[in-house]
Design a protein that fits this description.
single chain, about 190 residues, alpha/beta, Aconitase, domain 4, about 15% strand, EC 4.2.1.33, AconitaseA/IPMdHydase_ssu_swvl, LeuD
Length: about 190
């Protein structure tokens, strides 16, 4: 995984609450065994009609948000099943940060384990970000070290993150990488030292 320290990107506003993992990545696209290639199916039933044509009224089909790397959404984002494919699809599409007022616990942990920074702000702060992003192209900077979200128009908000998750993201570590930080001690143990 790539480390996330300070990330600046355009915000895509998905002003919907209770977005579940089945909406993020529908079940029929879970046949892949690798983590890549899921981005094309992100929010599939919202992005495309029954014939596979892009729906012009869905936010990801708006060229204004092409290349966006920050997704802002309503409360309880990532609820539903515990499929890890949901953050895989978000990451493969290009999102590095997801901002919401609340997250499902398993989804939150799956994001961290897959290199996506889930940022929980207050409902009022999220609504301010959503409104800005809906009205014009809005770029936001997320500073993980300082745990601050800010833009160039004076918006600034702090967020909390468990220290363990922060360390994982700052260093670009997954669970295996963390284990390998103890490689010397593991080798000593295996050698009976």
């Amino acid at each position: 995984m790539e480390p996330i320290r300070i990330h600046t990107g355009v915000v895509t506003p998905l002003n919907r609450a209770n977005v579940d993992t089945d909406q993020i990545i529908p079940k029929q696209f879970l046949k892949r065994i690798e983590r890549q290639g899921f981005g094309q199916f992100l929010f599939y039933h919202w992005r495309f009609d029954d014939d596979g044509n892009p729906r012009p009224d869905f936010i990801l089909n708006n060229p204004k948000y092409d290349g966006s790397s920050i997704l802002a959404a309503g409360e309880n984002f990532g609820c539903g099943s515990s499929r890890e494919h949901a953050p895989w699809a978000l990451e493969d599409y290009g999102f590095k940060v997801v901002i919401a007022s609340s997250f499902a616990d398993i989804f939150y942990n799956n994001c961290v384990k897959n290199g996506i920074l889930p940022v929980q702000l207050t409902e009022d702060e999220v609504q301010e970000v959503l409104k800005k992003a809906e009205n014009h192209t809005c770029s936001i900077t997320v500073d993980l070290g300082k745990q601050i979200v800010r833009d160039d128009d004076g918006f600034e908000a702090g967020f909390s993150i468990p220290g363990y998750h922060k360390e994982m993201l700052l260093n670009g570590w997954d669970d295996i990488s963390i284990t390998l930080t103890l490689e010397e001690k593991i080798t000593q143990f295996e050698q009976g030292a």
